[in-house]
Design brief:
The protein contains seven helices and two strands. It is mostly helical.
Length: 154
């Protein structure tokens, strides 16, 4: 069986290959330089605070640094960590507080929630005995089916 191999240099000019190789090397060098610049810029905020003589902290700010119950807003106001203002700070993921995550938004209440609540009370009243047990042969799934049926009617 005959084997047909081809050399990539048979179909391209050797000069073009050298130029392509040189461009590839230049791209790699540029990427390495960019990565080095990123590393230099990725300075630790604590190192910056300690080494920068223009940053001066008041006694109140110094006390707040190691206090987990206190946070600082972007306009340099100190707030309690559980308050609504602190949630806005944590949503931005400050480099000083990388462990804080944005608070989960709660679901908006709808008209159906109120209707379903009323229908569930009514369905439970119909399906249960006076002592609170479900009637014989009835399950919670039956209660929910009846509640949904009542919701559709109202």
């Amino acid at each position: 069986m005959a084997r047909y191999d081809y050399d990539r240099f048979d179909y391209t000019d050797r000069f073009d290959m050298d130029r392509r190789e040189q461009e590839r090397m230049e791209r790699m060098i540029d990427e390495a330089r960019r990565e080095l610049d990123r590393e230099v810029r990725r300075e630790d905020p604590i190192v910056r605070v300690v080494n920068d003589p223009t940053i001066v902290l008041s006694p109140k700010e110094k006390a707040a640094i190691n206090n987990p119950k206190v946070m600082m807003t972007p306009d340099r106001r100190l707030v309690r960590a559980g308050s609504g203002a602190s949630r806005n700070v944590s949503a931005g993921r400050s480099p000083l507080y990388p462990t804080l995550t944005p608070t989960k938004r709660t679901r908006k209440k709808t008209k159906m929630d109120k209707t379903m609540s009323r229908c569930l009370k009514q369905a439970n009243k119909q399906m249960r005995k006076k002592n609170g047990q479900l009637r014989k042969g009835k399950t919670m799934a039956d209660v929910m089916r009846l509640a949904h049926r009542l919701c559709k009617r109202s």
